[in-house]
Structure formats: C-alpha cells, structure tokens
Amino acid sequence: EPKETSVSGEKATNITWHAGQISRSDRERNLGQRGATGWLTGLSGSGKSTVAVAVEAELVKRGKLAYVLDGDNVRHGLNKNLGFSPEDRTENIRRIGEVSRLFTDCGVLVFTSFISPYRADRDQVRALFASGDFIEVYVAADVATCESRDPKGLYKKARAGQIPEFTGISAPYEEPLKPELLLETGKQTLDIAGLLKIKGS
Predict the structure, then answer these.
(1) Which residue among the candidates 44, 46, 100, 116 is catalytic per the annotation?
(2) Residue 189: left (phi > 0), alpha (psi -120 to 50), or beta?
(3) How far apart are CA 181 and CA 39, in angstroms?
(4) 116 is catalytic
(5) How far is CA 73 from the centre of its chain?
(6) Could you tell me the sign of the dihedral formed by the alpha carbons of 138, 144, 145, 146, in that order?
(7) pLDDT tens digit string along 154-199?
(8) What is the reported pTM?
C-alpha cells in the first residue's frame, strides 16, 4: 500500500501524474506557434488590461492563438473565494500561475493581467516555467498617474478608507527588478504592432 505523503501546503496525496500521448511540441506544431506566458504586472490603472487586450487582438489578427487571463475576470470564477489579504493575493497568483503554465503547455500565447504586487509570488510563478516560457512585463506608471486615471474609481474609494489593503495606497507594490520588458505607460504611448515586431511574436 503506498504511503501517504504531503508536501507543505499540499493537501492532495496518493496522486500520480499521467502523461498523455500528445507532446507539447505536437500541439505547437499543429498551431504553428510556440506557447509562452506574458506576465503583466503593475499598479491598478497602469494599463495592464489595456495592453493585454490590445496585444491579444493583434496576435489573433495575425492568425495566432492568444488568450488574456484578466485579474478581475478570474476573480469572478476560479478565484472568487479569495480576498485581498497578503495570503489570498499569494494564492491568487499561485493558481493563475498554474493555469498559465497549462495554457503555455497547450501552445497558447497567454497574457496575464494581475497586479501581483509581491516579487516572491512572481518568482514562484516564474519557477513553474521552462526558460523562455515566462516573460515578465512591468507595466509602469506611478501612483499619481494611475490615480489620475482611476478607471474603476478604486483609488477614490481607497483614499476614503472604503478599500483596505489597496496596492499603492495602503498595501505595498514591489517593482520587478529585472523584467524582460518594461512598458512605461505613464510616459509613452504604446505602438502595439511595433512592440510585437520588436519582440518577434
């Protein structure tokens, strides 16, 4: 009888990974593309979702299979049982990291749009991926710029004390130290088609 074991943080035991007959290279060959995850991180209002949606549309126009995993959208379903405490933020990012890895294995070009404020959480996700499969994109705009946009009215609520632990106001944001790509949306207008040309997508 197999001995029940448990790794820290894991509740599932007596499980075995089942390999399929179709390899990642098989799927990528069928799609004519290589899977990868573009991990967009930045403050609320920095432009993460705007960039992700625009890149997705441009890639689909070019005949690629691309998909956006948006922070708000994921919290409507997969992560609706999570709040915004540091622990819940970590679990939110862990789950979406695993989902992104599955998309990447399918050969999809996936773009995630999550504040993901903690470096340790982003590094933990990066560790799930093979080299070159995870592209950290820092969508950079300072708090003043994001607050001036405030598309969802969140900064106003945070300043009024209606949203506890709001990143940039009452909770920290740890900037990426060495992102693969820096998009300074507070200073420049983005040319999405040009950006994709530069990145070779």
Answers:
(1) 116
(2) beta
(3) 10
(4) yes
(5) 12
(6) positive
(7) 989 999 999 988 998 988 999 999 999 999 887 766 666 556 654 4
(8) 0.84
